[in-house]
Design a protein that fits this description.
Blueprint lengths: L38 H22 L4 H26 L6 H24 L9 H13 L1
Length: 143
């Protein structure tokens, strides 16, 4: 074995030798994850995403790259709004008036962003030609 025990290899705590992430500190916040206090926020965001994906699949039978982007934007905005609601619900006693107003503004902005993204999905638009789906489905079944 090369090197001297305790003197060779990466320094303790260095991420340079990480191969699969099994030794990463549990306190490290992974990008896209929320702290444990916001577990309900994460669940709300994931539930909203699943519902939106199901609605798009029901209307269009596939999710395009653009649709996936709009769904992601709407989900992120939902999580952002939920974080603002959580802050207003749990931390309002320690917040200043300006903090409360800022949080309220962010809540409204997040909802507007979500509404814009959902509107871009055109879920309320009627199918272009109802008979075209039948023909496409029959064509796929034949081939």
């Amino acid at each position: 074995m090369a090197g001297k025990p305790g003197r060779s290899g990466p320094k303790k705590g260095s991420m340079n030798a990480a191969k699969n992430g099994s030794r990463i500190a549990k306190t490290r916040l992974v990008v896209g994850e929320l702290p444990k206090q916001l577990l309900s926020v994460r669940r709300e965001g994931r539930s909203y995403r699943r519902g939106l994906e199901a609605a798009v699949l029901e209307m269009q039978e596939t999710i395009s790259v653009l649709d996936a982007h709009h769904i992601d934007t709407a989900s992120a905005a939902t999580i952002h709004a939920a974080i603002c609601r959580w802050l207003l619900r749990h931390k309002i006693g320690t917040m200043s008036t300006n903090d409360i107003l800022s949080c309220s503004r962010e809540l409204v902005k997040a909802k507007q962003c979500r509404d814009t993204a959902v509107k871009a999905l055109e879920l309320d638009a009627p199918p272009p030609t109802p008979w075209a789906r039948t023909i496409d489905a029959q064509h796929k079944a034949v081939t």
